[in-house]
Amino acid sequence: MAGRHEDLTLRQAKDRAPQRGLSDRESSRHMFHRRTIAAALLAGAAALMPGLAKAQGTLTVYCSVQEEWCRPMMAAFERATGIRVAMTRKSSGETLTQIRAEASNPRGDVWWGGTGDPHIQAAEENLTEEYRSPRLAELHPWAVRQAEQARFRTVGIYAGALGYSFNQRELERRRIAAPRCWADLVKPEFRGEVQVADPNTSGTAYTMLATLVQLMGEEPAFTYLRALHRNVNQYTRSGAAPARAVATGETLVGITFLHDAVTQKVNGAPVTIVAPCEGTGYEIGSMSIIRGARNMENARRFYDWALSAEAQAIGAQANSFQLPSNRAAPIPPQAPRFEDVRLIDYDFARWGSAAERTRLLQRWEREVRAAAR
Amino acid sequence: MGALTLGRIALAAALFGLLVPPWHGLEHGLGDWPRGEAAPLAALLLDGSRWWLWPVAGLLLLVAPPLIAGRAAGRLVAGAGLAIAAYIFLQGQAIGLRGLAWPALAPLFGEPGPQPALGWGGAVLLAAAVALIAAGAAMRGRFGGDGFVALLVIGSAALLLLFVFLPLATILSAAAVEDGRLAPGALAARLAAPEAWSLACLASHQGCGVVWNTLLLAVLTAVLSTLIGLAFALLAARGGVRGQPAFRAITLLPLITPPFVVSLALIVLFGRTGLVTTALWEWFDIPRSRWLYGLPGVLLAQVLSQAPIAFVLLDGAVRAIGPSLEEAASTMGARRFTVFRTVTWPLLRPAIAACLLLGFVESLADFGNPLVLGGDFDVLSTRIFFAIAGARHEPGRAAALALLLLALTLGAFALQTLWLGRRRYTTVTGKGDSGVPAPLPRGLRLACGAVVWPWMAFTATVYGIILVGGFVHDIGRGDMSFTWRHIITGFEVEWEGGPVFRGAAWDSLFTTIEVAAISAPLTAGLGILLAWLLARQSFPGRAALEFMAMLSFAIPGTVVGVSYIMAFNEPPIELTGTATILIICFVFRNLPVGVRGGIAALAQIDRSLDEASATMGAGALRTLRHVILPLLRPAIVAALAYAFVHAMTAVSAVIFLVSARHNLATVYIVGRVEAGEMALAIAYSTVLIVVMLAVVLGIERVVGRAQIGRRAAPIRAGT
C-alpha cells in the first residue's frame, strides 16, 4: 500500500516539475555538472600529488634513531641531492626483523642508525651488502673496526655510553637516596619506578643485557635482571622512550644511553644523568645497505653522504649527543665523553652474533619477562 | 547490454592487455616501453622470455573468430575465459621470484628464470578473462541473457574471492605451516598454547592467557557501554530533559574520532603526569600511579567510544516502543515502576541484547586503545600485531592467534543471529503510535541522571583536551601557553619557488587523503551495485555472494591486515608496500556497510519502477542508470561519507600494510604516541578531525540530496 502511494507522488512530482522553474532534466544536468567538476577536482588532486616531487630518483631508509634526528637528516639529504627519501622509524630489533621478513623481496634500501649488534647480526645472516666507502679513511678507529668485524657490511656512525637517568625533583620529593650504581636500581624503594625498553625490539636494552652479562657474569646478571624486573613498570618499544618518561615524571628512573638523557636535559627537564659506578657498556651506532636494494646507486650515495662531517653535524643540531664517527665532525659540548665514564671492554663480535643474541634474548624472555612481579 | 556485445568488449580488452600495458609490475617507471621491464605480453612472447604463456594467446585466438562473427557458443567462450584466468594464476604460482617453485614441473618447464609479479597487463587480461566468463554464461541464457548483470555477478564474485576469501584461506593455512611444511600438530599446539589460555593470574601475579584478557575486556565493555547508553536513551526519550542538542552532539562524536584519540586524552588527564593526577597529588596528597595503563584505562577508553553508539541504538528502540501498551498497564492500576519493569523492559530486551553483542564485537576488534593504554595487559589484537611486527617474526603464531580472534567474533555474530533472528531493532520506522509515552519513574530518572550528566561532562572534557592539546605548549605538564609549535613541526610549509611540504606529517596526510578519496567512491560504487544485484536480481549463488560480501564485516581488522600481508607478499599478486593494497583493504572492509545501506534504501523503492522500465525495453544497465541510481542518492551519500571516514580513521588493518613510501596518518600518530610526543599526536588528530568534517559536509553538498518529491508534492484528495 505504502509503495503504491509513494509511486503516485513520484509521478505527481514529475508532472509538476516544469512549473517549479527548473525541469527535471535541467536540474539533473545541473547536478551532473557539479558532480563532474567535483570528480575532476578529486581526480586532478589525486593525480597531481604523486607527481609533486619527481626528481632524481627515490630512496627508502629504515631509520633507527629518534625521529627528531631522522627527520632533519632525511630532509638535509633531500636538499643536498634532490633524491626523494621515504623513511620509517623503527627500533633496531624491529628493523632487523622486518629486513629478515622481507629478505626475498626487499623494500628498504638503507638501514641507518640503531645499535651495532643487530647490524652485525644482519651481516652475519647475509642480509646486508658489502660496500667499502671512500670515506672510511676519515673515521675513528672504532668505527672502522666495526666495519671490519662485519666484513664491511656495516660501518660505525656514532658511539654512546649506556647508563640511566632519574627525575631529580621526584626523587627529592620522595626523599630517596640518589642511585649511583647498577646495584642501587634493585632496591625496594624503586619498586615500580624503573623503565627500560624491551631487549627484543630495542638495541638499547639489548646492550644493557649484554653489558650486565659481561660485567657480572651470566648467572649473576640474570639474578640481577629478575630482581630488576620487579621494579620495572613498563618495557617500552623504543630505546629512548624511558628518557622522555623520566623528563616528564612518568617514571622515576629510566635506563637508556647517556646521550638520550642529555637530549631531555637540554630541553630543561629536571634530569640527573648517572654513569653506573661498577662500569658500563657502550654502543657503536651503525649503518648498512640492504642486500637486493632496489635503489642501490642512491643507497651508496646516502652511505657516503652520511659518513661525511657535515652530515654527522646534523645530530647535534637535532639535540642528539652521540659521538660522531667522522674525525672531522664537531663533537657537541654536551655529549658525554668516554673519558668520564668507566667502560667495559664490550665484545661486539661475540654479542652481535646471531647465536649469542638469540640465546640471550630467549633466556631473558623465559626467565625474566615471564617471571612474576 | 547483450551477451555478444559483452563478449566483443572483453575480446577487445584482452587484445589491448596483450599488446599495450606492461605485463609485469613496474619498478622504475615506463622506461623503454615496449622493451625491457615495461614490455607487454606480446613482446615477451615474441622474444621468447615467457614462452610458457603462449597458451593464453592461443586461447584468445581460439575465441576471437566466433565472437567477431557472432556465432560463438557460450560454453566455448566461458571455458576459454576460465582457462585463461586459471592458467595465469597457476603459472604465477609455479614460477615465482626464485624461478620454478614446483620442482615436479621441471621436465616440462626446464629452467625458467625468476618472474616478477603481474602488473597492469596481467590485471587487464585477468579482467578480460572474467568478462569472457560472464559473456559465455549470458550467452547460455543465465542471468536472463543480460550481459551487464552477468558481468556484475561474475566480476564481483571474482573480486570477493580474490580479496576476501583468498587471504582468509592463506591465513588458515599459514597457521598450520611450520618451517615451510604443513604441520597440523603445530596448529593444534599453537591454538592451545598457554600464552593464550593460561589461568595463572588467578593464582599468582603473572599475567593470564591472552584469550581470557580479551574476553574479560570485551564483556566489561559491552555491559558498561550498554548500561550507560541505556541511561542516556531513557533520559533523552522519556526523561523530559531539555538540552536535546547536547545529546545529538554526543551521537556524532564517535563517527569522526580516530579510534585511539580518546586514549591520548585520557593519558593527558590521568597519566602518571596527567592534569587530574597532578591536581589530586598536589591538593589531596594522593600518590601518583600508573593505574591507567592496563585494564582500567583500556576499558575506560572503549566505553567512552562505544557508549554513544549504544545510545543511538537504544534511543531508536526506546522511541519505537508504542506507548499504548504502557498506557493499558497503568490504566489497570500498575505503578510507574511496575509498568517499567513488566512492560517496557521486556520490550527493550532485544535491543539491549543487540547492543551488548555489538559492544562485545567492537571491543574484540579494537586495536588502537589497547596498543596505547594496554601496558602489560595484552589482548589478542595487540598480541597478533607484536607477533608480526615486533621483534620476533612468527607468522604461524600470529595466524593461530588470528584464528582464535576470528572464532570469537564469528561466535558472537552466530549468537546474535540465533538469539535475535533476523529482526531489526534499529530502524526508525516513523510509525509513531498516537499517545505520549509515560514519564520515567522518579527513582529511575534520578539514577539515569546520576549516570548521564557526569558522563556527558567527562566526554566533553576529553574532547576539549583533544581540541586544545595541539595548540598549547605542553598540556601534559599543565603549560597552557598558546603555541603553534606542534602544528609547525607537523605541517611546516617552506616556499622555494613552489610550496615544499617539510613538515613531518605531510607525507602521511597526503597519502591518507589520497587513499581515502580513491577508495570511498570505489566502496560506494561497488556496494551499491552489489546491493542492487542482491536486492533486485535473482540468480544461482545469490546467497553465497551475499555471504561473501558480508563476511568482511565479521573479520576483525587485525586479522585482515595479517592475512593480506601473507597473501599478497609475493608474485603473482604482489601488492604489499604499495598504495593499491591500502585502497583494496579499505574497499573490501567497508563494503558491507555500502551493501546494507543500499539494500535498505532499495527496499523503499518499489519494484514497479523497474518493471515499468523493463516493459519499455530498457536493459538492466539503463534501468540502473536512469531510474534507480538517482533515487539512491541518500544511500550513496551515506556510503561515501562512511567509507571516507572509516578510511581516514582505520588503524587495526592498515598498521601492517603501511610502508615507508605509503604511511597513513593513524599509524604515524600511533608511532608518535609510543615515542611520547603527545602534543604532536593530538595536534595531528585535530587536523584529521577537521579534514573529515570538511569532506563529509562537502560530499553532502556536492552529491546532493535526492529530489524524491515525497515531501514536496501535496497529496491530492481521493488518490
Radius of gyration of chain B: 29 Å
Protein chains sharing the most extensive interface: A-B, 69 and 59 residues
Give the H and E element order of chain A: HHEHEHEHEHEHEHHEHEHEEHHEHH
Shape descriptor of chain B reads globular
- Fraction of helical residues of chain A: 40-55%
**Mean pLDDT across all amino acids of chain A:** 84
Low-confidence stretches of chain B: 424-429, 706-714
The portion of residues forming beta strands of chain B comes to under 5%
The number of helices of chain B is: 30
Structural account:
The complex is a heterodimer of chains A (373) and B (719). By secondary structure, chain A is of the alpha/beta class. Helix content of chain A is 47%, strand content 16%. Chain A is built from 15 helices and eleven strands. In chain A, strands 1, 2, 3, 4, 5, 6, 7, 8, 9, 10 and 11 form an eleven-stranded mixed β-sheet that branches. In chain A, β1, α3 and β2 form a beta-alpha-beta unit. In chain A, α4 packs parallel to α5 and α9 packs across α15. The longest helix of chain A has 25 residues. Chain B is mostly helical. Helix content of chain B is 67%, strand content 3%. A two-stranded antiparallel sheet of chain B has the order 1-2. A two-stranded antiparallel sheet of chain B has the order 3-4. The two termini of chain B are 38 Å apart. The chains are: A alpha/beta (373), B mainly alpha (719). The interface between A and B is large, with 69 and 59 residues.
Question: Care to give the gist of this entry?
Answer:
The complex is a heterodimer of chains A (373) and B (719). Chain A contains 15 helices and eleven strands.
Short descriptors:
heterodimer; A: 373 residues; alpha/beta; eleven-stranded mixed sheet; 11 strands; B: 719 residues; mainly alpha; two-stranded antiparallel ribbon; 30 helices; 3% strand; globular
